[in-house]
Amino acid sequence: MNPRAAKKRGGTISSLLFVVGHPVSHSLSPAMHNGIIARLGLPLHYVPVDLPPGQLRGFLRIVRAGNFLGGNVTIPYKEDAAALADTRSEAVEVCGAANTLVVRRGKLHAENTDGEGFLDALEGQGWGRRYRRVVLLGAGGAARGIAFALGRAGAREIILLNRHPRRAERVAELLSRRYPATAFSGADLRPQTLREEFRAADLIVQCTSLGLRGEWENFPINDVQKTSRFADIVYRAGGTDLVRRLRARGVKAVGGLPMLAYQAARSFALWTGREVPGDAFLKLAIKALKLW
Ligand SMILES: NC(=O)c1ccc[n+]([C@@H]2O[C@H](COP(=O)([O-])OP(=O)(O)OC[C@H]3O[C@@H](n4cnc5c(N)ncnc54)[C@H](OP(=O)(O)O)[C@@H]3O)[C@@H](O)[C@H]2O)c1
């Protein structure tokens, strides 16, 4: 609810929520959260905060002392927010990245709703939460959150492929200690490795920032099996290039918008205690993306 709308309805804004990142002008989170807040008639407002580098510690000091219930954290502050928070969930401890902060009696608690939000989104597609062999492209904050959630859900094997393979190997080592029943491994992102790993994958998850702009050159699209499912966590109006091309080949593929909506629903519940279906957030995200 914007302040003018609140005034018109005779309401007042008692607390604030935020998304902090750099840049944040592209974020659909304000449209989703303010849409739900207006629908529920809550005295809250969600604001975007574009923070120049080096200022997160100072901003979080204001959040602790101010009129905030909490907020979201996006690129490039997910790791720093995890380190600067006063307490952390298990997902944040293991992944080292936070996408949600909750203010509790002047202290900041860090959460990561990306992984469970991703699984909620797959479930929303009728795909289920438990997989036999998953190939994850990337090893950044989002990939780590998703690998953690897939491991917790009982995936048998998770292979992380990353441009810097050592990073993928380190994540695999870390998660193997947490979930010994899941076989984690890490390797490079070269086309030949993708080809080999795609063969027996039942789920492929694209978690790199490639695809935000234009095409992924040399992606072995014809080696994705028709029996595999493909999830790109990046979203674009009309679908990412990979999602469009795979669907054209008859592969079941989903973009990142449902994940965005379902992780938002989980964050909203943490701040307000209100359980709102992820689909309600998704409808608002689709509407906002059309206006983008
Ligand atoms: N739908 C959603 O709700 C949702 C949620 C979170 C994130 N996302 C999207 O997911 C993407 C990743 O987010 P993140 O938080 O994980 O970011 P991050 O921590 O910065 O990780 C970026 C990942 O992309 C890889 N990468 C970047 N540029 C590359 C290139 N030119 N070639 C190959 N690999 C490259 C990095 O590989 P290296 O390790 O080798 O650098 C790393 O694995 C972003 O586009 C973000 O918008 C979507």
SSE series:
HEHEHEHEHEEHEHEHEHEEHEHH
| DSSP summary: helix tally | 12
Give average pLDDT, whole number: 94
Radius of gyration, in angstroms, nearest whole number: 19 Å
Question: Mind telling me the CATH superfamily name of the largest domain?
Answer: Leucine Dehydrogenase, chain A, domain 1
Provide the number of structural domains.
2
Identify the strand order in the major beta sheet: 2-1-3-5-6-4
Distance between the termini: 19 Å
- Proportion in β-strands: 15-25%
Could you please say which CATH topology of the largest domain applies here? Answer: Rossmann fold
According to CATH, what is the class of the largest domain?
Alpha Beta
Counted beta strands: 12
Q: Which class do the helix and strand fractions yield?
A: alpha/beta
